[in-house]
Automatic annotation (TrEMBL):
It comes from the Bacteria. The lineage of its organism: Bacteria, Pseudomonadati, Pseudomonadota, Alphaproteobacteria, Hyphomicrobiales. It comes from Ciceribacter thiooxidans. (6S)-NADPHX binds at residues 62-66, 127-133, 156, 258, 321, 375, 442. Coiled coil: none annotated. Its cofactor is K(+); Mg(2+). Homotetramer. Binds 1 potassium ion per subunit. AMP binds at K412, G413, A414, D415, S416, G441. This is Bifunctional NAD(P)H-hydrate repair enzyme. The keyword Cell membrane does not apply.
Length: 493
């Protein structure tokens, strides 16, 4: 499946380079700004056909330039338009200066703007060029607009959102709609940025897409184009042993449910055989609730060695309900030493908090066989320095973690990022908030384990698993529980 334009992401700096390449190839850069401003105007008029007054807020760079184009076009459409500028507009340069010189709408200083009833705001203060926290006057205007409840249409990004990281730089508008150009930026998907964008529209302003593709930053929106070719298919020759064997480790008798959720999810994701490997004291609890999933007592390191003699047992999930301690570390080390594929989740991750390097060393060699699925707290236990570095985006953190651990990393959240040691990364956007429910992470671990069992490489299995989890949640509806979620997992093709 081709990488569609909707899946492409460019950081603001990469977009700036594309912009420069377009100008160098002879494309009229003011023409691009004109198209950008016209597209904003079309979006504003479509969303607010009865708008009483359109208030365009223009900043000191090209984002402001788009605003001057929009102000002119809105006035030409017959609408009432007011214009406010940040800084000294006589200092505008290049295309933005041209746009201002062609804009007949009189402008006033930004600080003098107080929203009136019926105002629709076009936010063209900062876009890709936001370089630091917004100045106090912008903080004030954001607050005034919030308090007035006036609708905002953002040009490129809501001012105050860092397009690379999605971070709020001091303050940021909460837009109803955002019009961006050529591709979305990471800040449109990463939290909290995503919550400030409203609906996002990506407009082709005429930069040849080959210039965008030449800037491939190995970052995409998660979707089937990333992993469909690696997704296992079943055909008439399918046999349960050929469809792989997944083993999920159960916790003690008091904590068995999480493993069963993962096991059932692995089966739904297509693993031919699934076994819950359980301590003997939990056999009864597990046996009372399992049908298609098999059960095997595995208590000690020797039990595990015996279990691992069957080389068809290739894929494992360890962590949900397992307990934190030396047993988790010893089991993981044995799985690593025998070339197994492992999803390490929850307690399995926490078990290595004191010595993450022991985990990374165990899986250091060869193609990645480990998938780590930390939520934010677990991520910080394995990668405290990355979690603490404010300059890193969630994408940077996941990528550096993946490289360090030689693992596919699923950095979970509403904006899960999946990264590979080779630098590939995707941001997931199909997960509904109804997934914030106990046990949904166990289900995800099971789906990914089921895909690993079928031979899918770690990064592809991780990305596909997160996407299929999101699809299942959407189908399961707003009141989903981890159990109902499982019933909606669909291998999709
Ligand atoms: N990509 C494309 O193809 C196309 C892109 N287009 C548009 O161009 C936009 C990018 O333009 P841009 O690079 O001029 O950046 P922009 O966001 O206007 O801000 C830069 C200005 O703000 C200033 N500044 C920054 N932070 C600040 C702060 N905290 N507080 C105060 N000042 C601050 C900074 O000043 P400096 O940092 O130099 O002091 C500079 O003056 C892009 O978002 C899109 O809308 C379209 O026109 C068509 C084609
Ligand atoms: N608000 C949200 N929107 C979308 N997905 C979410 C949200 N909150 C959590 N999720 C997803 O739900 C799962 C929760 O996993 P986890 O935090 O391990 O919870 P648990 O331990 O309860 O299973 C993850 O896949 C995460 O990405
Ligand atoms: K903006």
């Amino acid at each position: 499946m081709a990488k569609g334009r909707d899946n492409w992401l460019l950081t603001p700096s990469a977009m700036g380079e594309v912009d420069a390449a377009a100008a160098a190839s002879g494309i009229d850069s003011f023409g691009l700004m004109e198209k950008a401003g016209q597209a904003v105007t079309a979006a504003v008029l479509k969303l607010f056909p009865g708008g009483e007054r359109f208030v365009v807020l223009c900043g000191p760079g090209n984002n402001g330039g788009d605003g001057y184009v929009a102000a002119r076009a809105l006035q030409e459409s017959g609408a009432a338009v007011a214009l406010y500028h940040l800084g000294d507009p006589s200092k505008l340069k290049g295309d933005a200066a041209t746009a201002r010189s062609r804009c007949p709408v009189p402008a006033e200083a930004l600080e003098t703007y107080f929203p009136m009833r019926g105002d629709v705001i076009v936010d063209a203060i900062f876009g890709a060029g936001l370089a630091r926290s917004v100045p106090p006057v912008v903080v004030d205007i954001v607050r005034r607009v919030d308090e007035a409840g006036a609708p905002v249409v953002a040009v490129d990004l809501p001012s105050g959102i860092d397009g690379r990281t999605g971070t709020v730089m001091g303050a940021a508008f909460k837009a109803r709609h955002t019009v961006t150009f050529m591709t979305r930026k990471p800040g449109h998907l990463l939290l909290p940025g995503r919550l400030h964008c409203g609906s996002v529209e990506t407009v082709d302003i005429g930069i040849p897409f080959r210039l965008v593709e030449a800037k491939d930053v190995h970052l995409f929106v998660n979707g089937p184009q990333e992993w469909l070719a690696a997704l296992p298919t079943t055909d008439a020759t399918a046999h349960k042993f050929r469809r792989g064997h997944l083993t999920v480790f159960s916790g003690p008798a008091t904590a068995t449910g999480a493993a069963r959720l993962a096991a059932a999810a692995g089966l739904r994701a297509g693993a031919g055989l699934v076994t819950v490997a359980t301590p003997p004291d939990a056999i009864a609890a597990n046996a009372a609730h399992l049908t298609a999933v098999m059960l095997k007592a595995v208590e000690t390191g020797n039990d595990l060695d015996d279990y691992l003699r069957d080389e068809r047992r290739t894929a494992f999930v360890l962590g949900p309900g397992f307990g934190v301690g030396p047993k988790a570390r010893a089991f993981v080390t044995a799985l690593a030493a025998t070339g197994r594929h492992l999803v390490l989740d929850a307690d399995g991750i926490t078990a290595f908090a004191e010595d993450p390097q022991a985990l990374f060393s165990a899986f250091a060699d060869g193609a990645p066989r480990l998938v780590l699925t930390p939520h934010e707290g677990e991520f910080a236990r394995l990668f405290p320095d990355l979690a603490d570095d404010p300059a890193l985006s969630k994408v940077d953190r996941a990528r550096q973690a993946a490289a360090r651990a030689n693992a596919a990393v699923v950095y979970k959240g509403a904006d899960s990022v999946i990264a590979a040691p080779d630098g590939r990364a995707v941001i997931n956007e199909n997960a509904p908030a109804s997934l914030a429910t106990a046990g949904s992470g166990d289900v995800l671990a099971g789906i990914v384990g089921g895909l690993l069992a079928q031979g899918m490489p770690a990064f592809e299995a991780a990305a596909a698993g997160v996407w299929l989890h999101g699809e299942a949640a959407s189908k399961a509806g707003a009141s989903l529980t981890a159990e109902t979620l499982i019933n909606h997992i669909d291998r999709w093709h």
